[in-house]
Design goal:
The protein is 22% helix and 48% strand. It is α+β, with helices and mostly antiparallel strands. The longest helix has 44 residues.
Length: 572
């Protein structure tokens, strides 16, 4: 069959008609876009107000809608709560715990599908936010207790079936979160200079409640600051990065530091309490469940690495000691009681400096036990019930230099299934010059180690909330102690010559083993004072073993000495 032929004249007429139709359509779209921009202004504001039951009001300086390009831009955007409406909801018991507010310099959407919108689904290729500041105020109202958390589907409302944004880009954002506590001061946390990249964000009726609805998320932030301890401390994190594409999370620095000097902190606290000064650098996590973290705040990761850091603890005993029941506050018990679920298969420590210092109420001077270049690992660090059902022990293995000299190999095994906080710990060390502890014992115990060589130390402690037992082997030679006293008139520490001679000649054994006698081994069981801390209990138990050996225990080999919380021998 012969195809129809188009004459040149007809072709020109058709081309002119098509051009005219395009111009008419363009004019219609331009006019419609201009008309709809005004209607969109009213529609968005009414939708936000009605959707929040009158609680929130949306304002923006201008709205630009381009129908043919599928784009929308809002300038100078703000989302604010209606204070009168909120107070009314508080009085009627319907107010939410979380109140939000936001300001943006510009919010733009590109690639909007108008066809899908007609069928109840919102879809866009790109969402971009510039100059974003978010403020969140959290109250804990009794009428919200026990209510399930809102799901992602709740954001859809009644009219929308689904929301999808292929790419979300946010730069230079700031987040401020304030926790309002009844009868206590409010605490505000801040996240600065946040950049967020999110791909394929989607919510539909099938979106899971505990799954973060994005295929990929990457975030960077300059700093995170959190208040702590009624303003006694600063908690900061800097150079935060997370990326779901490789399941990584890293922090350049984490610091938990007092806001005051040691002297000022002690005056501010008014009682003898531990002061913590902690700092860690280059903390990185791999194999992290980023989606779970963003959705619920629970942190699960295969491996954490701490490149370097320091941990300093200080106590000023010149202030009153207030007895506080510390049963149930061992490290693994605190972890299990945490409201945030955590799990790390392995935590690798490359190098951390540790120290514990006290200022004596007798001498006014401070002494510090130091552990340099501490490195090792922690396995099965978790409070997740499913992980604990599979493996019930958290293990710590470290090596460290005591007083920056001799290597100590230490271990801790925490029983995560125990109702009484069971754990065991121990260590081994060789070739330690004992006079190195004099800067600690002189101000704190009024005793100076003039000579002595620790040849070998091996001990193991088993403990729970209420008692401990230690088995200690300690071989040493040429031990000589000088006992001291405080000379108030001359404001210095002086040697007590007579008592020193009596102690060294009659009570202390300068060697172990001594002569042809067998090696003395300490076996001591000790009750725990309820107000004694985890490290305090370990220290008291260890000192009990040392005392048993250096004072030449006359207990029979294999016998166990039983002492009460004050170190006094218990009657059989």
């Amino acid at each position: 069959m012969k195809k129809p032929e188009w004459s040149p004249k007809l072709k020109k007429r058709l081309a002119a008609g098509m051009a005219a139709l395009v111009l008419v359509l363009a004019a219609v779209l331009l006019t419609a876009g201009h008309f709809l921009s005004g209607r969109l202004d009213r529609e968005l504001k009414e939708r936000i107000q009605s959707g929040s039951d009158g609680l929130y009001r949306l304002d923006f300086a201008s709205a630009s809608l381009r129908l043919w390009a599928g784009s929308l831009a809002l300038e100078k955007v703000s989302l604010r709560a209606d204070t009168a409406r909120y107070l009314s909801q508080v009085r009627t018991g319907t107010a939410p715990d979380l109140l939000a507010g936001a300001e943006l310099e510009r919010l733009s959407l590109e690639g909007i599908s108008w066809v899908r919108l007609l069928f109840g689904s919102f879809s866009a290729d790109l969402l971009r936010a510039e100059g974003l500041t978010i403020r969140l105020d959290h109250h804990s109202y009794p009428h919200n207790e026990g209510k399930p958390p809102r799901s992602w589907q709740d954001l859809l409302g009644e009219k929308l079936k689904a929301v999808r944004v292929k790419k979300t880009r946010i730069a230079g954002a700031r987040l401020h979160y304030t926790h309002h506590r009844e009868a206590l001061s409010s605490r505000t946390s801040s996240l600065q200079n946040v950049s967020l990249r999110m791909d394929d964000f989607r919510i539909d009726r099938q979106t899971g409640k505990s799954v973060f609805p994005a295929a990929a998320v990457a975030m960077k932030a300059d700093s995170l600051s959190l208040p702590y301890g009624d303003s006694l401390y600063h908690f900061r994190m800097s150079n935060l990065e997370l990326d779901s594409s490789d399941s990584s999370f890293s922090v350049g620095r984490i610091s938990f530091t007092p806001r005051f000097s040691r002297e000022a902190f002690a005056r501010k606290a008014g009682i003898a309490i531990d002061q913590f000064d902690l700092s860690y650098r280059n903390v990185s996590c791999s194999g992290t469940d980023i989606g779970r973290f963003l959705a619920s705040g629970h942190f699960f990761s295969h491996r954490m690495t701490i490149d370097s850091g320091r941990m300093e603890i200080f106590r000023d005993t010149r202030y009153t000691r207030v007895a506080k029941n510390k049963v149930g506050t061992y490290p693994h018990q605190v972890l299990l009681q945490s409201g945030v679920r955590l799990h790390f298969d392995t935590v690798r420590i490359n190098s951390i400096a540790l120290s514990y210092a006290e200022r004596s109420y007798k001498t006014g001077q401070a002494g510090a036990v130091q552990f340099a270049d501490t490195k090792g690992y922690i396995s099965n660090l978790t409070n997740d019930s499913l992980a604990i059902a599979k493996e019930g022990t958290c293990r710590v293995r470290v090596v460290t230099k005591v007083m920056n000299h001799s290597m100590l190999r230490a271990f801790f095994d925490f029983d995560l299934r125990s109702a009484k906080g069971d754990f065991r710990c121990g260590g081994q060390m060789k070739n330690f010059p004992m006079p190195l502890v004099s800067p600690v014992t002189r101000p704190l115990a009024l005793a100076e180690v003039k000579s002595g060589q620790l040849n070998e130390l091996d001990f193991e402690i088993r403990a729970n909330d209420y008692a401990s037992s230690i088995t200690m082997h300690m071989l040493y030679s040429d031990l000589y102690l000088a006992l001291m006293k405080v000379d108030r008139e001359e404001s210095r520490i002086r040697k007590r010559s007579l008592v020193t001679n009596l102690i060294n000649n009659l009570i202390l054994d300068d060697n172990n083993p001594s002569g042809k006698r067998p090696v003395r081994v300490a076996r001591v069981q000790r009750d725990r004072a309820p107000d004694l801390s985890f490290f305090g209990f370990i220290w008291k138990t260890t000192l009990g073993g040392i005392r048993e050996i250096v004072m030449g225990s006359r207990t029979k080999p294999g016998d166990v000495r039983r002492v009460d919380a004050g170190g006094r021998e218990k009657k059989k």
